[in-house]
Amino acid sequence: MDRYPPIADHGMVGDLQTAALVSSDGTVDWWCAPRFDSPSVFASLLDSERGGHCRLAAEPPDGNGQGMSVRQLYLSDTAVLITRFMGPGGVGEVADFMPPVDAPAPTDRHRLIRVARVVRGSLPFAFACRPRFDYGRAPHTLGLLDDHAAVLRGPGQDLHVRSTPGIRLRADGDDVTAHFTLSAGQAAAVVLTTTAEGGQAPPAPSLYDIAEDVEECRQFWLTWLRSCTYRGRWQDMVNRSAVTLKLLTYAPTGAPIAAATMGLPEQIGGERNWDYRYTWIRDASLSVGALIDLGFEAEAHAFRRWVRDRVEAGGTASGDPLQIMYRVDGDPHLTEEILDHLEGYRGSRPVRAGNAAADQLQLDIYGEACDALVVGGDIGAVRGWKALNGVLDWLADHWDRPDEGIWETRGGRQNFTYSRLMTWVAFDRGIRAATRFSRPADVARWTAARDGVFRQIVERGWHEKRQAFVQHFDTDVLDASLLLMPRVGFLSPHDPDWISTLDAMDEELVSDSLVYRYDPAASPDGLRGSEGTFNLCSFFYVEALARSGRLHQARHAFDKMLTYANHVGLFAEEIGPSGEQLGNFPQAFTHLSLVTAAMALDEELGRSTTRPETGGTRHPVVHGLTAPPETTGGGTGGG
Questions:
Q1: Residues 202 and 241 in one domain
Q2: Cα 206 to Cα 166: distance, rounded to the nearest angstrom
Q3: Residues 419 and 455 in one domain
Q4: Crossing angle of helices 551-562/535-547, nearest 10°?
Q5: Structural domain that includes position 162
Q6: Tens digit of pLDDT for each residue in 562-595?
Q7: 151 and 273: one domain?
Q8: pLDDT in tens, 594-612
Q9: pLDDT tens per residue, range 69-80
Q10: What pLDDT does residue 377 have?
């Protein structure tokens, strides 16, 4: 299994309609086109033999990788990825980027530009383009037009390969390869362009034009980031997370996807291998909330329009106003299939394309959707209000139902506390909006429903013996999703019942700042195997600690979480037992929660000079040592 790089050993480039992963050895081992959720062109991350890849890298002098060190970085605050190769013969690098297609119309033409250059000495390079269309299921043919132009034709799609004069392309079966040497000051490039079958071939590239493309790409990202209002302590990490969230947003519709990949395992060799290339109402709503907090209003408006359109489209076959997830164009059909021909990442089967969870009932999405519709203050628009009003009228009749919950368990429906919490949010936001904008609404009915939800949560979601709010009404199991209770305004972060719940989570779900979603052994979820800690929950934990007055503990947990980022600041879904990244990559949920945690910490640290640290009886933990009580009183000593 050493044929597979670590999940974290990648950077991501994209053009706002699709994205590619580039490993630190210069291999593009994941790229779907023309959209995020299209079948793959390169997928060796899921099968090193059948998946297909494109490699451009400096060749080590001994042929087996010895004597060559590699480093990877982004051009600061951009999506231009640089892979540097340093060996006895010299220093070279490969720049990968995709010119942004920030347009309202989708296109089947996407460019991945790869530029090799040497800055010191002399280095040999190798290039290989071995596409495997349709997740490796479809054959392709090669048309080698000349030394610098080739087209690889798959069913319904062409991949054009164009090189600058320094790279002579050669046929290798139905694939394309090249070997070339560059000296200090020299550069050469390859441009990969996807088109529809029979699409117009791109022009021959020139280094001058590519230099302009690089600068335009760099300026696009720097200009976009100028709208960011965050000026806190963790500027670099927040900027990287913001760029990542933007890269994971489909520009024609404004729909953010959950992650760029499918099939990457939550446990190596396990079956928890899902397709995350779709738009979850929950994930996307929270992502938009994070972008609004950062000042990116255009992205928020686009997503609110997308949600409104989903409601107006007529809901689901069961009559519910919303499905939990959609394709990026709003298509609700996400039939799940098993790709038996793929080995899976390091043997982790099955590999799934599509997602059967799309048919689940998850009532929490109405809270997240209503929050996203209301935030920003434009729900006064007639169409937006009609969408919100219809959702809440439906929810008033259907909120008191068991569902599959936020974690999409496949072990049967329950009365999940988090689902109830977010239905409370839906009614609360609707009532406020109706009052603020003087809109017609059955506010009395919504208020009665909101109050009924509240009573149910505090009476049935609270476990007296555990002294904590629990996962669902018939269990004593804790659930990290409830870390959001103070954030959504259900209760104060200093409420004794909340502090008691936070203490219980500290004891049961937290492992050295890393947070598990829940204990699947105590609360079976219908799946075999285990999983790592959930990065989303770990950052929500930081925010909850900060809001509850435990600033020393919160900052220490946040700083430790940042050490789990990969070499270019990206996070997958989970952290495994040895600190490895697991699950689909990079994950929007993780990066949005990093942003909200950083903003909460900054805000609370700014207040800390005017009030003492509070929040219960637990003491700050630093380097694994708990400070004795006498050193922590009044927030003036210890920790």
A1: no
A2: 11
A3: yes
A4: 160
A5: 10-225
A6: 999 999 999 999 999 999 999 999 999 999 999 9
A7: no
A8: 999 999 999 999 987 655 5
A9: 999 999 999 999
A10: 60
